[in-house]
Design a protein that fits this description.
With 90 residues, this protein is an alpha+beta fold. The protein contains one helix and six strands.
Length: 90
């Protein structure tokens, strides 16, 4: 299956990159509803957010806060009615 091969290839590449450079967050588009995968919840060693869809069913809005001296990523995922369905900060 092509998607499984792609996932395996990119997962390996990103996991190696995570150890060398540190990946804060991976954002991906998809054809179904949103999902969020904590580091280590699968084969990913970094957080992964998936959103999108045909209509689209959801969309993400990442924002970086730099005022604290340490960058903080705030991630919001909204449904089609602009309701927040996921909020995470890193």
């Amino acid at each position: 299956m092509v998607s499984a091969q792609c996932r395996t290839f990119w997962q390996d590449v990103l996991n190696k990159t995570y150890h060398d450079k540190k990946i804060d967050l991976s954002l991906s588009g998809h054809m179904h509803t949103h999902s969020f995968h904590e580091p280590g919840s699968g084969t990913n060693e970094y957080p992964v957010c998936v959103a999108g869809g045909y209509t689209p069913s959801s969309f993400m809005m990442p924002e970086i806060e730099r005022e604290t001296g340490t960058d903080i990523i705030h991630l919001r995922v909204y449904d089609i009615n602009k309701n927040i369905v996921l909020f995470k900060s890193y």
